[in-house]
Write the structure tokens for this entry.
Amino acid sequence: MSGRLDQYRLFWREFRQTFETTGAVAPSGRALCRELARHVTGNGQPRRVLEVGPGTGVVTDQIIARLGPEDTLDLVELNDRFVELLRQRLAEEPSWQAVAERVQIHHKPVQDLSAETPYDAIVSGLPLNNFPADLVAEILAKLHELAADGATLSFFEYVAVRKAKALVSRGDQRRRLLGIETHISNARKQWGCGRRCILANLPPAWVHHLRFGG
Ligand SMILES: C[S@@+](CC[C@H](N)C(=O)[O-])C[C@H]1O[C@@H](n2cnc3c(N)ncnc32)[C@H](O)[C@@H]1O
């Protein structure tokens, strides 16, 4: 299975079966994928790129198109069905086959990923708003740990969703959403290097870009 329609079907099925980790009804739209891959740009040096939560690989398509000849790409994905599809795409799709030797798939949650050599660019598709606030803090700290000095982290969130939900929630749910808000805004205050609103996505999304280090 590797046609676009099959990929949408798989995503929808995973949304219904694993809502908390899949977090969206369909893969990200093209404009959002392009913005997420914005900092995967060559500077002549070989670069190590990490994508967290590639799902069916729509952002991966954009990353692959930007890889320099000596760049490497690591994909970390916890969902069995998505991992199977990603492996299939690497084996069968010409643009993926062309870089397959430089791509590694890690079938695990990003929290368990260890990297001896840090990454120069990290792109995350994780649905942070679905997670407990402590897990969001843990994941942001992990991504920082995995990043080289000066590395970028690009991630997205749907516009206004967290704030709107927090307004109408009570108790633990409200505390969870406010906790996530705090962790994301602290990270943006410390390392934010830009953000862009992608209106041409359903729903519209903010892409946040961070640059770690000095
Ligand atoms: C909102 S989907 C994004 C998929 C794709 N990047 C896109 O934009 O269409 C979130 C993805 O993150 C994966 N995921 C969720 N939690 C994860 C974790 N802790 N570590 C690695 N992948 C995770 C899910 O399985 C899913 O593929």
Q: What stands out?
A: The mean pLDDT is 94.
